[in-house]
């Protein structure tokens, strides 16, 4: 996986909320008053898929009532009503017209409320449920199911319009992505379940998504189509996939039992807060943060992830330490404005996952390299991608700015627990790693040899410290062949995990 597993092509298609959150301060360096983690947080997970909040039993004053007995009533009444209209869907199964493009096209400021038992069913005929460019649309208390969006496209907010609010809504059993995202989108207390590709695909063609909030949702069972097996290396799955999102708060969610990764931020994302989530039993990594910048990952419970994909790579003899939190060509960058200028991973509990945290940088992946699988994208530091070529790339500033760097990653005050009998592994599920490959490609690359491996290991301010380890952990540094014990990891020249404690068994 390490040197070759990456994406791919970008996607083609264009509150009444009860949460129990731990107290937290900002990502700007303000002291965090939380105690050191000693056990997994006991806050309840948001079980919104099995226990959805009921919608209004009667139509609100001034709302347009939609009748499930009339096929296409919702789309027709949307067309005939002015912007800002509230629609109340009666109990029952609502259907669109028989054409595959019979989706609802809201007008600006429309609100769609479902009564208890209101379902919008695509009958495996309609591709999309809600589309168009209207801003500030709200969906509440509605179940959306049975739509057949194509690969890389979405069912709700198909065209990634801005300012949508999705609350207390169930989006399940659709193909493609259950939900797309636009700027200022709020997704709260909703169920994204058993969709064919993604629960949500946060991607907007030709634009960056700003101000995204994903809070208190249950995101489970997605990627029923098993797309990574159909298209190996596509990087096109996950409970949620984020692309070019600038500013996201992902908090208080229960992300579990997805086929593949739970949360995956891929390509020029920036300024993420991923906090107080429960990420568990996902087949792949709980979190992948790839070719992106500046994030805080804190207060999360991360357990029993990566058993399927980690074991798959180990069984085929791959020595790459594919971990449950995977930071790939991503780091803190002060020149990219954000609420932090680092990637800080702290005060999390990681329990019985297939390995821990891996910091990785592909020496051959940079702007204009054929090994850059991010479809021709370049870093946020270089606007004219053509400049990333010889001879200019061999010297400052392009030598640094033309590559995504895993740098300024601070991993501290976490609790790492591993019982190999629970994970059912003898080896390779016990790794913490910081490494790169030997640079070889292309022949004009200025990063050949061990340059990148030396930089990520010793020169880019990547630090573990003040953590608690329980179990038989090993450590990988520089390259996959350097597997270290605790003493080697803490000693020269690596000097990692100062102030950390190590125990074979949990003493509380």
Structural features, described:
With 508 residues, this protein is mostly beta strands. The protein has seven helices and 37 strands. The strands form three sheets. The protein has a 13-stranded parallel beta sheet with strand order 1-2-4-6-9-12-15-18-21-24-27-30-33, covered by helices on one side. Strand 1, helix 1 and strand 2 (86-89) form a beta-alpha-beta unit. The protein is globular and about 75 Å long.
Mean pLDDT, to the nearest integer, reads: 91
Largest sheet: 13 strands, parallel
CATH class placement? Mainly Beta
Report the portion of residues in β strands: 25-35%
Helix content: under 10%
Question: How is this structure best summarized?
Answer:
The chain is mostly beta strands and 508 residues long. Residues 160-314 form the Carbohydrate-binding/sugar hydrolysis domain.
Layout of strands and helices, then pairs:
Elements: E1 64-66, H1 73-80, E2 86-89, E3 92-95, E4 111-114, E5 118-121, E6 138-140, E7 143-145, E8 154-156, E9 165-167, E10 170-172, E11 177-180, E12 186-188, E13 191-193, E14 198-202, E15 209-215, E16 218-220, H2 227-230, E17 238-242, E18 245-251, E19 254-256, E20 263-266, E21 270-275, E22 278-280, E23 287-290, E24 293-298, E25 301-303, H3 307-315, E26 325-328, E27 343-346, E28 349-351, E29 357-361, H4 398-401, E30 409-412, E31 415-417, H5 420-423, E32 431-436, H6 451-459, E33 463-465, E34 468-470, E35 474-478, E36 483-484, H7 486-490, E37 501-503
Parallel strand pairs: 1-2, 2-4, 3-5, 4-6, 5-7, 6-9, 7-10, 8-11, 9-12, 10-13, 11-14, 12-15, 13-16, 14-17, 15-18, 16-19, 17-20, 18-21, 19-22, 20-23, 21-24, 22-25, 23-26, 24-27, 25-28, 26-29, 27-30, 28-31, 29-32, 30-33, 31-34, 32-35, 34-37
Antiparallel strand pairs: 35-36
């Amino acid at each position: 996986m390490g040197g070759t597993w990456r994406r791919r092509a970008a996607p083609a298609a264009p509150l009444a909320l009860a949460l129990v959150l731990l107290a937290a301060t900002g990502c700007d360096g303000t002291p965090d008053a939380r105690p050191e983690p000693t056990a997994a947080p006991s806050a309840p997970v948001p079980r919104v898929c099995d226990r959805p909040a009921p919608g209004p039993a009667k139509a609100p004053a001034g709302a347009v009532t939609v009748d499930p007995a009339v096929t296409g009533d919702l789309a027709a009444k949307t067309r005939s009503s002015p912007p800002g209209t509230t629609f109340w869907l009666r109990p029952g199964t609502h259907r669109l017209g028989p054409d595959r493009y019979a989706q609802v096209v809201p007008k600006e400021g429309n609100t769609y409320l479902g009564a208890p038992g209101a379902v919008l069913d695509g009958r495996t005929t309609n591709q999309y449920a809600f589309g168009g460019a209207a801003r500030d649309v709200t969906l509440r208390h509605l179940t959306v199911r049975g739509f057949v969006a194509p690969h890389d496209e979405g069912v709700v907010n198909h065209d990634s319009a801005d300012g949508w609010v999705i609350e207390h809504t169930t989006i399940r059993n659709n193909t493609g992505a259950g939900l797309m995202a636009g700027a200022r989108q709020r997704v709260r207390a909703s169920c994204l379940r058993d969709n064919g590709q993604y629960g949500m695909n946060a991607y907007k063609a030709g634009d960056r998504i700003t101000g995204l909030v994903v809070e208190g949702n249950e995101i489970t069972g997605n990627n029923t189509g098993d797309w990574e097996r159909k298209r190996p290396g596509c990087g096109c799955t996950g409970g949620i996939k984020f692309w070019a999102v600038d500013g996201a708060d992902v908090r208080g969610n229960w992300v579990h039992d997805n086929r593949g990764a739970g949360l995956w931020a891929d390509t020029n994302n920036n300024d993420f807060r991923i906090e107080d989530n429960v990420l568990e039993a996902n087949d792949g990594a709980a979190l992948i943060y790839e070719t992106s910048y500046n994030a805080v990952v804190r207060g999360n419970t991360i357990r029993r992830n990566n058993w399927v994909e980690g074991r798959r790579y180990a069984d085929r003899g791959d020595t790459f330490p594919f971990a449950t939190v995977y930071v790939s060509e991503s780091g803190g960058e002060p020149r990219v404005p954000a609420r932090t200028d680092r990637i800080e991973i702290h005060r999390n509990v990681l329990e019985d996952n297939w390995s821990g945290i891996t910091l990785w940088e592909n020496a051959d992946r940079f702007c204009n390299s054929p090994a850059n699988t991010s479809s021709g994208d370049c870093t946020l530091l270089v606007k004219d991608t053509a400049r990333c070529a010889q001879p200019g790339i061999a010297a400052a500033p392009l030598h640094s700015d033309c590559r995504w760097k895993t740098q300024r990653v601070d991993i501290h005050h976490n609790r790492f627990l591993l019982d190999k009998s629970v994970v059912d592994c003898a080896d390779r599920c016990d790794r913490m790693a910081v490494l790169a490959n030997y640079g070889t490609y292309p022949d004009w690359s200025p990063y050949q040899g061990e340059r990148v491996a030396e930089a990520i290991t010793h020169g880019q301010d990547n630090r573990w410290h003040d953590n608690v380890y329980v179990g038989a952990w090993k450590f990988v540094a520089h390259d996959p062949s350097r597997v270290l014990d605790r003493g080697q990891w803490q000693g020269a020249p690596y000097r990692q995990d100062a102030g950390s404690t190590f125990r074979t068994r949990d003493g509380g």
